[in-house]
Design brief:
homodimer; mainly alpha; three-stranded mixed β-sheet; 3 strands; 63% helix; 3% strand; metallocarboxypeptidase activity (chains A, B); Peptidase_M32_Taq (chains A, B); Metal-dependent carboxypeptidase (chains A, B)
């Protein structure tokens, strides 16, 4: 096969696979939002048939032949050119897929499914011992996967690479160590402050119908295109790209709390704006796909925290919020801003504030790294968890459900996934700082309800690139330097110094 | 391959194909109800990729080999046994698919798509000449298809057989001739009656939110299982089976008219109850699939007309309707019943009443038969249409949009499809008469809101059989005699004699 023909075949094959795979996104969205209860059995059949089909297509041996034949088609001098990047990423994915023996892949899928089921059953009973053998099996299998895939430093790197290509335990440990040190110090200062927000401002009467309208209005105002999306309600909020022109988000409404739905909406809108900014003409190829979990999370956290919790944002939106919610009539803008930015160590990661959130993530990173290195056994994991909670956050979980068993991730075999949450925060701060430098007084743009300069900057510097560069390279190209924790630390310190007068 | 192994392979292959195909039902449902406008382009890609995949699977040459190898596996003495029926239907479908050359299949798909586009453009302009060449091409191609597939009587039979297996022009013509004669007479008597309903009763203030609740309540009361379904709003109502446990319906609300949404809901609920009654354990095989368009329509029309327009039904539901709709406060039950059963010749098939509806269908049947036989050219079709409208219904269309160009069917190449609508009415009446005989005083069961005996009877005599018998055989087994127009004529005569005092 001549190189051009091989390349064209690879492209057509992968695009068709992605189109078929994208039906899975609709199956999932529908299952969470619309499907009648009795539809679950058939929906599982649909997922299974589609997974079989796409697995066959992604491991089709003709991919290997075409990859071998397409060399020389693209311009070698442009490693981030569309063709070069596509071929590089197709090769990486195909190699990873073919290195994992199919019986290991099947065992992993089964262990993940069994693990999640066991976790769901054991968690309400605080029954660590019932869940432990499933976690042991998952760790064993994922170690096996790491050996099959290969690594330079240590087994953990092979798992992390799947979620955040190019990162390793060795790149993360120093960044996270510094971040943890600074955050623990900041948290101490905050605890020592005499100022405190009034959290009852947010826990008041917020009718769901008004929240729905307000959330739509905010999502649209920051740049989420509802003509190419939808906002629905689900128990567990998410964002999903069904295809170009169809990127949907969900949120969860609590009529006695405004934060949950509102910041959830902005978070998911951040994910969705990334998806809406991916180049549609490259759909189904690496150049048209989001690059990593960390970069995805950077977009959601940037909009949720650095935009949605900022003074400029609320100078614009508070008057509108007051029109929607009569309970805000006698609340001042500054009291409201302080309330949404309350810092308070809590037990549950997904409910944590912007400052303490990263401590939850680093705790998990350190523990899973120790598990993979063999420095910690699952028998000792619950005690290690509690010790780190005391160490980092100064609180002790009353039970496993609110401690070591709170997250679904490990039960589904997702080891190496957690650090991408903090990487997201770190990238977000670094990108936001660079955008602010480029765009001038960004807060006063927010104040005027003008979010499009920021979105355009993100489009040009992040979204449009798809997976043409590794995350680290993308951040360097956008900001001028390698990812580090500096911008995040600077941002948190300056913001909370002002709020808490420290 | 030993027979059992061949059979098992056929079953697994077809079930998997059906599971994949069922994602198309979700794509379609979502497109009509939920999808954002900008999602259309990608949705077309999804439909195309899925169609390609399922076509490949349905014409996989291994099917032919397995069919040849599985002979003798089932009990020859039981032709409607599950295995015998499955193999017979797999063979019939595979033969039809392989007899049609693939370039003809492609040409037909393209002509159907082009035809529909041309129709949509030409119809608002009343531009028959712009549409005519597309229809000519479709007729030419479908004649070619008929020759490829083969027939015993005439080419039309090969097309009709696809929608209503076992029926031919020769079986339909005498039934329809009798039906037309009787209905034209009945219509004359009705026109001569001094009684007339007050149609303003139904064209009043019917708030959409109340209609939504009432429609749900009625659909559920007659037996549509909402735990395994949904009711949503769409421009063009439909029912779709996404899989066992997930059969959804839609309707259209008009706040100044109750009939549209309500009878639309009951009609689609009738389709859906058939789908919900198909044996889930046979999903993806002929034994678990609806048998024909006519039988499907018999279920929707039975519930819409013979139940939903009956005196017993309204004795039960009218008090509830009054609670929902204040405009019914001073309306009597008998005036309301007469209003929903008004007979009035009109131009548009889909808006026609129970009596005149069949005249619209028979007009189309006679015209398409003449076109296929070469007795009529498309140049003369509009004049022939208008002549039959005068002849059957006594009215003349003012333009093509309300005449020969009103339906989408021919523009998409659906020739031989229309008669299944009248077959549905005819089967419905015959099945309803048999059920009434078996169940005793069915009207007084309705009066007490008890619809489950009728639904159970339909489950046992129709739904549960899937496609194990041809439609004609199914009706004979359920009612004791071959389909004819007797029950429909008897039912209409007796009902309208009472209402109109004729």
């Amino acid at each position: 096969m001549p190189p051009k023909e091989a390349y064209d075949w690879l492209k057509a094959h992968h695009v068709e696979t992605s189109v078929l795979e994208s039906m899975g996104a609709l199956l999932h969205w529908d299952q969470s939002t619309m499907m009648p209860g009795a539809g679950h059995g058939h929906r599982s059949e649909q997922f299974a048939a589609l997974a079989k089909l796409t697995h066959e297509r992604r491991s089709d041996p003709r991919i290997g032949d075409a990859l071998a034949a397409c060399g020389g088609y693209w311009d070698e001098r442009d490693p981030i050119g569309v063709e070069a990047a596509n071929v590089r990423e197709w090769m990486r994915a195909f190699e990873r897929a073919t290195k994992i023996p199919s019986d290991l892949a099947v065992a992993l899928a089964r262990a993940a499914s069994d693990g999640e089921t066991a976790w769901k059953r054991a968690r309400p009973d605080n029954d660590w011992k019932a869940f432990q053998p499933y976690l042991d099996e998952l760790i064993r299998l994922r170690r096996e996967e790491a050996e099959a895939v290969g690594y330079q430093g240590e087994p953990y790197d092979a798992l992390l690479d799947e979620y955040e290509h190019g990162e390793t335990a060795a790149t993360l440990e120093p960044m996270f160590r510094e971040l943890r040190h600074e955050i623990v110090n900041l948290l101490d200062s905050i605890k020592g402050s005499s100022r405190a927000p009034d959290p009852s401002i947010l826990n008041n009467d917020y009718p769901t119908s008004a929240q729905k309208q307000f959330c739509r209005q905010v999502a649209q105002a920051v740049g989420y295109d509802l003509k190419a999306g939808r906002l629905d309600a689900t128990a567990h909020p998410f964002s999903t790209r069904i295809g170009p022109g169809d990127v949907r988000i969900t949120t969860r409404y609590n009529e006695h709390n405004l934060s949950e739905a509102l910041f959830g909406t902005i978070h998911e809108a951040g994910h969705a704006m990334y998806s809406q900014g991916l180049p549609a003409e490259h759909f189904g190829t690496p150049s048209g796909v989001s690059v990593s979990l960390g970069i995805h999370e950077s977009q959601s956290r940037l909009w949720e925290n650095l935009v949605g919790h900022s003074a400029g944002f609320w100078r614009h939106f508070f008057p509108q919020a007051r029109d929607f919610f009569p309970c805000l009539k006698d609340v001042s803008e500054s009291a409201f801003l302080f309330a949404v930015n309350e810092v308070q160590p809590t037990l549950i990661r997904v409910e944590a504030d912007e400052v303490t959130y990263n401590l939850h993530v680093m705790l998990r990173f350190e523990l899973e790294l120790a598990l993979l290195r063999g420095d910690l056994s699952t028998t000792d994991l619950p005690a290690a968890w509690d010790e780190k909670m005391r160490d980092f956050l100064g609180i002790t979980p009353p039970d496993f459900a609110q401690g070591v068993m709170q997250d679904v991730h490990w039960s589904a075999g997702l080891i190496g996934y957690f650090p991408t949450y903090s990487l997201g925060n770190l990238y977000a701060a670094q990108l936001f700082e660079a955008a602010s430098k480029a765009l001038g007084d960004i807060e006063s743009q927010f104040e005027r309800g003008n979010f499009s300069p920021l979105l355009s900057w993100l489009r040009e510097n992040v979204h449009i690139w798809g997976s043409r560069m590794a995350p680290r390279e993308l951040v360097r190209k956008a900001t001028g330097y390698e990812p580090d924790s500096g911008a995040l630390i600077r941002g948190l310190k300056s913001k909370y110094a002002q709020l808490y007068g420290i």
